[in-house]
């Protein structure tokens, strides 16, 4: 007795079902081609999609409560502007000048006061993780962010994970030594945690001095790897490089000193201002209009201002193009004073006298002793720069006797 053969079941396709029986031969192939459009289709399949509108689509759901908070914040800032113009309130720029945190304004000083008065502009400070830790000298620009945060301004801590591969050539006569990728990534992770803790400490320290957090307060920690790792450099050359002239770049003091007194400059270091300017452009699109840096960053901030204005006016993306007709909408920056030792030498890794913020590099007792050994004529200045203590109390501090100071026990801090 012959065994009965059962037909094999073929895999079905969602678009067009195939016959259940196995087919062979030309006649079967012709029949299958009539029932399977994927095999008989000779023209290219068309994609049907809805045409996008000219106006940008809303991609994120925003609640009415959040919109109300934003509007309340704008109304509050408008009331503050009226009070400042009437002389009833101090502006943010005036507050920073009283604390000694503004050294040079990259642009017009009156315009900086007007921008901080009329708009709730964003501020950012950038730092490259070329070392495992920050030092005391880095704290001055970040104190500006601390004051901006408790005043209700959106602040951004920018970590230069991408720009640390090149390194800022400002103030250096020799190129930086090559660092292994593992070391660079370890430095970046360590400094990321430091900046994260710093942001939390600013909020807690402000609460101790009467600054209660509000819904409008914003702070962000951003790594510029976010855009540099996903963007071709040809776009930078298209939007920025095509409108940048070599004359001003060759005329910078950093380039002249390296070419005349140093060991020359690589193209990577020469293009560092382009990288920093592009960082500012990415943040500028989100409302970050003010850049703050140390006094040695004046040239980079100036180049960044010109770069942001040039990109905004000439970018190939028409939706991002903005002529910036109003001065209040243009980028502006300022520098903080340079923290120096009693001999006048600046603190830093290059100078070899850095007071690190990492306990494993500078102990708590050594950090404590650094401020205790501060000369008496510098104490008042340091209190203005590094603390939230009100100015009347700082002015009264030199009049106190030594036994009236309540200094912490260094042994308890080291424990």
Automatic annotation (TrEMBL):
Catalyzed reactions per annotation: tRNA(Tyr) + L-tyrosine + ATP = L-tyrosyl-tRNA(Tyr) + AMP + diphosphate + H(+)
Record key words, sorted: Aminoacyl-tRNA synthetase, ATP-binding, Ligase, Nucleotide-binding, Protein biosynthesis
GO biological process: tyrosyl-tRNA aminoacylation
Molecular functions per Gene Ontology: ATP binding; tyrosine-tRNA ligase activity
One Pfam family this sequence matches: tRNA-synt_1b
CC per GO annotation: cytosol; mitochondrion
InterPro entries (alphabetical): aa-tRNA-synth_I_CS, aa-tRNA-synth_Ic, Rossmann-like_a/b/a_fold, Tyr-tRNA-ligase, Tyr-tRNA-ligase_bac-type
UniProt key word Translocase: no
PROSITE patterns: AA_TRNA_LIGASE_I
EC number: 6.1.1.1
Family according to the record: Belongs to the class-I aminoacyl-tRNA synthetase family.
Protein name: Tyrosine--tRNA ligase
Organism: Penicillium nordicum
Upper classification of the organism: Eukaryota, Fungi, Dikarya, Ascomycota, Pezizomycotina
């Amino acid at each position: 007795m012959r065994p009965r053969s059962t037909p094999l079941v073929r895999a079905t396709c969602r678009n067009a079902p195939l016959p259940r029986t196995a087919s062979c031969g030309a006649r079967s192939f012709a029949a299958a081609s009539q029932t399977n459009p994927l095999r008989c289709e000779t023209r290219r399949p068309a994609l049907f999609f809805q045409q996008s509108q000219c106006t940008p689509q809303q991609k994120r759901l925003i609640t009415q409560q959040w919109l109300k908070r934003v509007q309340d914040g704008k109304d509050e800032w408008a009331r503050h502007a009226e009070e400042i113009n009437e002389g009833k309130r101090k502006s943010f720029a005036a507050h920073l000048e009283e604390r000694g945190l503004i050294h040079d304004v990259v642009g017009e000083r009156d315009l900086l006061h007007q921008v901080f008065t009329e708009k709730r502009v964003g501020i950012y400070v950038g730092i490259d993780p070329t070392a495992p830790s920050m030092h005391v000298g880095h704290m001055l620009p970040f104190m500006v962010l601390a004051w901006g945060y408790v005043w209700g301004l959106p602040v951004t801590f920018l970590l230069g994970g991408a720009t640390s591969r090149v390194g800022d050539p400002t103030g250096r006569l020799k190129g930086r030594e090559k660092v292994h990728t593992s070391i660079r990534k370890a430095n970046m992770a360590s400094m990321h945690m430091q900046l994260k803790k710093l942001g939390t400490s600013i909020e807690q320290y402000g609460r101790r001095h009467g600054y209660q957090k509000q819904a409008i307060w914003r702070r962000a920690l951003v790594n510029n790897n976010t855009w540099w790792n996903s963007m071709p450099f040809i776009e930078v050359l298209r939007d920025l490089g095509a409108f940048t002239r070599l004359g001003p770049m060759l005329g910078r003091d950093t380039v002249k000193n390296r070419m005349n007194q140093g060991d020359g400059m690589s193209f990577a270091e020469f293009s560092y201002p382009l990288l920093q300017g592009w960082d500012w452009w990415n943040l500028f699109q989100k409302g970050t209009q003010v850049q703050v840096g140390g006094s040695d960053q004046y040239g980079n901030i100036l180049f960044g201002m010109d770069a942001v204005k040039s990109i905004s006016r000439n970018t190939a993306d028409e939706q991002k193009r903005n002529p910036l007709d109003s001065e209040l909408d243009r980028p502006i920056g300022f520098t903080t004073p340079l923290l120096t030792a009693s001999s006048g030498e600046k603190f830093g890794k290059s100078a070899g006298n850095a007071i690190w913020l990492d306990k494993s590099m500078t102990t708590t007792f050594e950090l404590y002793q650094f401020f205790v050994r501060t000369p008496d004529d510098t104490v008042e200045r340091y209190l203005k720069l590094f603390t939230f203590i009100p100015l009347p109390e700082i002015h009264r501090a030199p009049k106190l006797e030594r036994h009236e100071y309540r200094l912490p026990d260094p042994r308890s801090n080291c424990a």
